[in-house]
Write a structure and sequence with these properties.
Strand order of the largest sheet of chain A: 2-1-4-5-6-7
Largest interface: A-B, 21 and 19 residues
Number of helices of chain A: 9
CATH superfamily of one domain in chain A: P-loop containing nucleotide triphosphate hydrolases
Shape of chain A: globular
Helix content of chain A: 40-55%
Number of strands of chain B: 6
Structural class of chain A: alpha/beta
Helix content of chain B: 40-55%
Strand order of the largest sheet of chain B: 4-3-5-6
Distance between the termini of chain B: 75 Å
Largest sheet of chain A: 6 strands, antiparallel
Largest sheet of chain B: 4 strands, parallel
Distance between the termini of chain A: 34 Å
Oligomer: heterodimer
Strand content of chain B: 5-15%
């Protein structure tokens, strides 16, 4: 799939702008504060993944205006054309149109455009908290199978309901609280067992891709293993929730479930989070993105658009060159403040110049 | 310049209504000030009268008048062995439009959602159980919304009814009639497949 054009109005630093893209590699160049990442963020939004930087939607609306508009044309691999139009309101719900038909959730855009994002923050996938790794896995799950989004979204909502009920209990299990927990436990157990099963299945498919991608980026064949570290045992989640109930009521939070799970990676038998060098961790982070991208290509036979946000500047020349070679075919849009990275040949260069725009204030 | 206290109070009161933001509240308030006094008074009277006369049906918690039972509960032609459980009175209007249902209703007055402060104690489930015994109900159709909270509400109702000798059913969810399979979202289509049924050869 290719992004053919992106038009922006009052999005981030852009009052109004239009960009067209080639199906190959586009290098978006310019010094800091010129809106390079903002442009990638708009493309990410068209793919229904929200802000690349994880900020709330209202931060995407240009200061002093009420709504931002992102409009993009996408050519699918099978020749279909999609027109995506999103109005991001500072307050209230976003309006999302796909081929001029209203869709209820941003995530439904994943069927029209799928992206794989590489960002400088990806190191957190290896070094950071478990939440980063769960997010990586869940994003891959949705990219491979867009309908899976509802499982993840339901789980979030059920957890909020259950945690609210736990707080309302104030440490005491009254008959009303018991029946409330019975109902929400049943919902959480069904959604949680399903999500853990989907994540495990996906992860086992990702491991061989991970090892292959790591070997290319790091330039050496290395044994990579990934273990899904669940917060509960082999029993169904319903049993684990029942066992944890008095503890959960006392602490006012749900202590077991997929929201407490983690993935632990090992490089040559040593824990990547604690024992790997900075360089190894960077290679692993890149490999995680490449592996997920490969899985999407295999499962859906689509080519996600690669968005590379200032990734090469963080890498030593060896890894940068290896990454340039390892990037799968299809459309790629990269940003750089220092020119086209070595090893990459750009089919198109977008030079963002003009006065530096002040960053959005919250 | 800001509005006088009287005008601002009107705007503030309107702004507290659901679905009316500060801008709409201002527009409605200024409109009310512009129209003839009779028109505005008719609205005021309608609100006062509705608040005075409209009550909740003591049996099914639908809207009724003057503390009496609602039109459905007081209709002797209704089948008392069948109860359709809904979240809100507006759902009764929707089911009634089908003209397919001849039983009675029970309004829970909300959906089970701790986030919104709607716990077990706020829903009329205990009253429902009392009706099963008192009215000799044989089947309860749970017609809560097909979303997460509606499904949780259905589970809750089913748990309360389990000890009673009554058939518990849930309305089906699936494709809209006259719709197109091609344009159905995966979730709805998935549910429709789950709830498939045998076809008569005629």
């Amino acid at each position: 799939m290719n992004v053919e054009s992106v038009s922006l109005a009052d999005f981030r630093s852009y009052p109004e702008a239009r960009f067209t893209f080639t199906p190959g590699l586009t290098a978006v160049l310019g010094s800091n504060g010129r809106g390079k990442t903002n442009l990638l963020e708009a493309v990410g939004f068209m793919a229904g993944i929200g802000s690349l930087r994880g900020v709330p939607d209202e931060a995407l609306v240009r200061s002093g205006t009420d709504a931002a508009v992102v409009r993009g044309e996408i050519a699918a691999d099978d020749g279909r054309q999609f027109l995506v139009e999103i109005e991001i309101a500072r307050t209230g719900r976003n309006r999302v149109l796909l081929n001029r038909q209203r869709v209820s959730r941003l995530r439904e855009l994943a069927g029209a455009l799928t992206v794989t994002v590489f960002s400088p923050d990806d190191l957190q996938l290896v070094k950071g908290s478990p939440a980063h790794r769960r997010r990586w896995l869940d994003e891959a799950l949705v990219a491979c199978h867009p309908a899976r989004e509802s499982v993840r979204a339901d789980l979030d909502r059920i957890l909020r309901q259950r945690n609210t009920a736990l707080r309302q209990a104030r440490g005491r299990i009254s008959p009303d609280i018991a029946v409330t927990l019975d109902v929400w436990d049943a919902k959480l157990a069904a959604a949680g067992d399903q999500l853990r099963c989907l994540r495990r299945e996906l992860l086992s498919g990702l491991v061989p891709r991970l090892a292959a991608a790591y070997a290319v980026v790091a330039g050496a064949a290395t044994e990579i293993s990934a273990d899904y570290a669940s917060s509960w045992g082999p029993e169904p989640l319903a049993e684990a929730l029942a066992a944890a109930r008095s503890d959960d009521v006392r602490r006012g939070v749900t202590t077991v479930g997929p929201h407490r799970d983690d993935v632990s990676f090992e490089i040559d038998g040593l824990a990547a989070r604690t024992h790997a060098s900075q360089g190894e961790q960077r290679s692993l982070a890149l490999a995680l993105r490449l592996a997920a991208d490969g899985e999407v290509r295999a499962r859906r036979s689509v080519k996600p658009v690669l968005l590379l946000d200032d990734v090469f500047s963080e890498l030593d020349p060896g890894r940068a060159g290896a990454l340039a070679l390892a990037l799968p075919d299809g459309q790629k849009i990269l940003t750089s403040a220092t020119g086209v990275p070595p090893g990459c040949s750009a089919d198109q260069v977008l030079l963002l110049d003009g006065p530096a725009r002040s960053p959005e204030r919250p | 310049m800001s509005y006088s206290v009287t005008v601002q109070t009107l705007i503030d009161q309107l702004g507290r209504l659901p679905g009316i933001g500060p801008k709409s509240a201002q527009r409605v308030a200024l409109h009310l000030l512009k129209v003839p006094a009779d028109d505005a008074n008719r609205l005021a009277r309608a609100i006062t009268e509705a608040k005075e006369k409209v009550s909740v049906c003591p049996r099914c918690f639908n809207l009724s008048e003057d503390g009496a039972e609602c039109a459905v509960c007081s209709d002797p032609r209704r089948d008392g062995t069948l109860i359709c459980v809904v979240e809100e009175p507006s759902d009764i209007v929707a089911v009634e439009r089908t003209q397919e249902f001849r039983g009675r209703y029970h309004v829970l007055q909300g959906a089970f959602s701790p986030i919104d402060g709607v716990g077990v104690d706020r829903l009329r489930v205990v009253e429902l159980c009392d009706r099963i015994v008192a009215e000799g109900v044989e089947e309860v159709i749970i017609a809560t919304n097909p979303n997460l909270e509606g499904e949780a509400t259905a589970t809750l109702v089913a748990r309360y009814l389990a000890p009673h000798d009554v058939r518990i059913t849930r309305i089906a969810s699936g494709l809209p009639v006259g719709g197109d399979l091609e344009y159905a979202d995966e979730l709805t289509l998935g549910r429709a497949l789950e709830g498939r049924r045998a076809v008569d050869a005629g």
